[in-house]
Amino acid sequence: MRLKEFRRAFALALLAAALAATTACEDKRTGVPKVLVIGGAPQLRDPYEGPLKQPDRVLLMNVAQGLVRFDPAGNIVGGVAERWNVSDDGLSYIFRLSAMEWPDGSKVTAQQVARMLKRQLTNRSRNPLSDALGAVEDIVPMTDRVIEIRLIAPRPNLLPLLAQPELGLLRNAYGTGPFSYSRTATPGQVHLLSEVISADEEVTRREEVLLNGAPAPNAVKAFTSGDVDLVLGGTAADLPIAKHSRRPRNSLRFDPASGLFGLIPLRDEEPFADEDVRRLLSEAIDRDAFVAALDVPGLVARATVLEPGLDGIPGPVQPAWFGVPLTTRRSAVQAEVLRLFGKTERPTIRVFLPPGPGMDILFSRLVADWGAIGFPVERASSSASADFGLIDEVAPSNSPAWFLRKFRCVAVPICDNEVDDLLAAARTSPVAAQRYALLYQAGERIDSEQLFIPITAPVRWSLVSSRITGFAGNRYALHTLTDLDQRLNNRGE
Question: How many angstroms separate the CA atoms of 93 and 70, rounded?
Answer without folding.
Answer: 18
